[in-house]
Amino acid sequence: MALLQCSFNSEALGISASMNVILPQGERRRPLKTLYLLHGLSDDHTIWCRRTSIERYADAYGIAVVMPAVNRSFYADMARGANYWTFVSEELPRLARSFFPLSERREDNFAAGLSMGGYGAFKLGLSHPDRYAAVASLSGAVDLNRLFADRFSEDLFDIVEDPASVPGSSLDLFALAERVAGRPGAPLLYQCCGTEDFLYEDNVRFREHCRKLGLPLTYEEEPGTHDWGYWDDKIQSVLAWLPLRDE
Questions:
Q1: pTM above 0.85, yes or no
Q2: How many CB atoms lie within 10 A of CB 218?
Q3: What are phi and psi of 236, to 5 degrees?
């Protein structure tokens, strides 16, 4: 595997942006299957490589991994900040494919993330089910409405002018799930959370919501907290779960 540290100009953000990319080495017959792997609120694009063995795990599957930096944006076009949703959902895939031999096919594209990144991965898949075959949330911040109500982070209040506008909007995973339900081509969903995690109850609510809607959700829980030991273990489960057919 090759690990590339990439800096590039982002028109969406108006700054020099960063991503780490893991690529399989050797000859290949076709463009690479790709996992967009998203970081949490207190992290950056380097964290997955520093705190897990993602490079070694990805090697076993021959998959490319793209890890962008999105600051503390909650993967949103911010009212007081930059357009991180436009960046991660539109500009990043386009630029990554121009730099590296990555597949454009829906069946070859996946997203996953932890905490804030779990929210971002589900937001990608539920907003663009035509682009992602499967998405995974590890200890995800899936209930943005509850986080606003509890003032979980002051960073949230940079996302929108009025938190009352969030329910039912494109920031609300519960609403996005309802829009996808019943339509053909919903992405596969994988959700996990430790039972001692402070986000556990939020994840249970979202699990039940998806089940009622009939979405294709795989859910796992076991003892665990909001920590890297748990995420290092579960990202291996995500890779094993992804529909990576041999060709």
A1: yes
A2: 14
A3: -70, -40
* CATH number of the 2-241 domain: 3.40.50.1820
Q: What is the pLDDT of residues 104-154, one digit of tens each?
A: 999 999 999 999 999 999 999 999 999 999 999 999 999 999 999 999 989
Neighbours of 215 (CB within 10 A): 18
Tokens 């990554």: give the residue: 96
CA distance 87 to 111: 15
Distances in Å between the Cα of 56 and the Cα atoms of 22, 43, 111, 132 are: 10, 21, 18, 23
